[in-house]
Amino acid sequence: MKPNFTNILRKCILILFISANSFAVFAQTDPDLTIALAYYRSKQYDLTLEYADKAIKANPSNAYAYNVRGTAYVQLDKIPDAISDFTQAIKITPNYANAYQQRASAYSKLGNTELAIADYSKLILLEPSNETGYYARGNLYINKKNYAKAVEDYTQSIKLNPKYPDIYQQRGQAYYYLKDYNKAISDYSQAILLLPDYSLAFINRGLAYEQLGKSELAISDYNNAVKYNPNNKDAYNYRGSFYFNRKKYQEAEDDYTQYLKFEPDNSLVLTNRGNAYTGLEKYQLALQDVNEAIKLDPTNTDAFIIRGFIYNKLENFEEALALC
After folding, report:
1. CA 138 to chain centre
2. Domains in the chain, start-ordered, CATH in brackets?
3. In sequence order, what are the residues at sequence separation of 6 or more whose Cβ sits closer than 8 angstroms to the Cβ of residue 60?
4. How many CB atoms lie within 10 A of CB 318?
5. Partner residues linked to 17 by β-bridges
6. Which of 177, 205, 249, 295 is a plausible cystine mate for 279, CB 3.0–4.6 Å?
């Protein structure tokens, strides 16, 4: 006889980590919640909802059950339903730190930055040693362009978890936006030390080196970004721009072409490649690119400017004048 999976689960006492933030939820003695947690762990979110519903019907004051159901709603991209459940969990248990964390993340997905910041702030008040709360709130401050606040939060997160490369990468971004390029480079370097193939950190450090006029270090970083992640399309775009700015038009064209293999409908990069073709005096190819760029984004003023220049070079003066 095959074992009855449901009956086995009912006998389990589980402590599961059920979110990207690895929060512990105790099933306690509720068999339906135990099953819901197991289904969540196996990524069967519809079944998670089914058994979480049963747990809530059996005990409407079970804050854990609402939190579990909310996390399942998030995985199913039903964010408003998730927020409703996290809110209910908080009503039942006002100091439920993980519910604040989950609701903050859900608010972020909806673009409700202020509400997300408020929830992360509450999380930090309840759990001052929660480095994820500082890190996530720092990311929101970056989005709000409050870079000084972002630096404060990332610094606190680093104190709590000095071995997490993403925090250094993000603080480096905040310093970059504050135009403190040396501190940005220091943080990107620390991120790379912790994660030697960190392609994004190589790109950003390359950009910071460019700002300081350190071209050889910049191109070395762009090359490493491509080396460690050949699928990082942004590395090709930034390296292409590096080459273009130094009139290495063939190298620029090659990199922009590589980017467009990943994202052929990017108006900006089509414009960039059109510009590189113009530098190579490949005007017909350039015209094809900027025409496509304009078709994709009629507000792309750079593409119009380049097209006017191309028409002038092709002695199509009527078309050029029409763009003026």
Report:
1. 13
2. 163-230 (1.25.40.10), 243-324 (1.25.40.10)
3. none
4. 7
5. 24
6. 249
